[in-house]
Amino acid sequence: MLNSNKKIFEKALEVNADIYHFHDPELLPLGNKLKKLGKSVIFDSHENYTIQINGKDYIPAILRKIISKLYFYYETYSIRKYDAVIFPCTYNSQDPFENRAVRTVFIDNFPMLEELYHIFDESTHKEKDAICYVGTLTEDRGITNIMEAAHKAEVKLVLGGIFTSESYEQEVNNRSEFSCVDYRGYLNRKEVLEIYRKCQIGLSTLLNVGQYNKGDHFPTKVYEYMAMGLPVILTDSKHVREVLKTYEIGIPVNPDDPKEISEAILYLLKNPELAKKMGKDGRLAIKEKFNWGIEEQKLISLYESL
Description:
Blueprint: H1 2-15, E1 19-22, H2 28-36, E2 40-44, H3 49-54, H4 61-79, E3 84-87, E4 104-106, E5 130-134, H5 143-153, E6 156-160, H6 166-174, E7 181-185, H7 189-198, E8 201-204, H8 220-227, E9 232-235, H9 238-244, E10 250-253, H10 258-270, H11 272-288, H12 292-305
Parallel strand pairs: 1-2, 2-3, 3-4, 5-6, 5-8, 6-7, 8-9, 9-10
């Protein structure tokens, strides 16, 4: 790590950029060095690392709070010197970097219209009773519960992505409910889009653990489902309810309740016109509010201000 950081710092000096923009927390010490040289530095914090550290199973439980606090103090020490911090969203309408960063700019990872929105074809034939989840496969992301829900609803669950734990993958494979799963494994972008085209519902029922569901935004996959006209079944939250007031994109559920998830699946499949309307609302939301074209202007404005 130290040797790698040294090479990165040497390359940074060689480039002699006007602005240095990085997102790895391991690079905070390099950002400090660059600030001492009078450079403009932006920390792009993709995650709330303070909360995330508390959920790392590979760190002994007794050490997690200590490491989390130490990271929080060092991050605060660093970003007070930086020109700006970029973060995807507020947390319960609050800036998590308030009184710590000179400036926070909220820039979310919304889809590009040309990649998903513009390739949508309403006439594409959907596979009967097929629903999907695409992303990292862990228990915290609700995979066990959506598999059980799909089995109860007697539908096919198309899973795309990789298991981060071999033991969890084995556990999932050994469950009787796995019989309803069409597991595709790691997918390239074209294969992901094909799943979105063929399936009727997109699921994202992350459990309420760690940093999940605390931010005032959706997981990236939800925006992708919306761009491709899929109604969404997603974890209930204050932010979800707020969005549903304007755009009826899907059904919020308790992520810990497979029965409730199953009922939502069946409700959408039995009400295709409502599901279609939700898909249209999702696409409208992407076009009007949740797309990268809007977010990139925030980033450009930030660069121009430094």
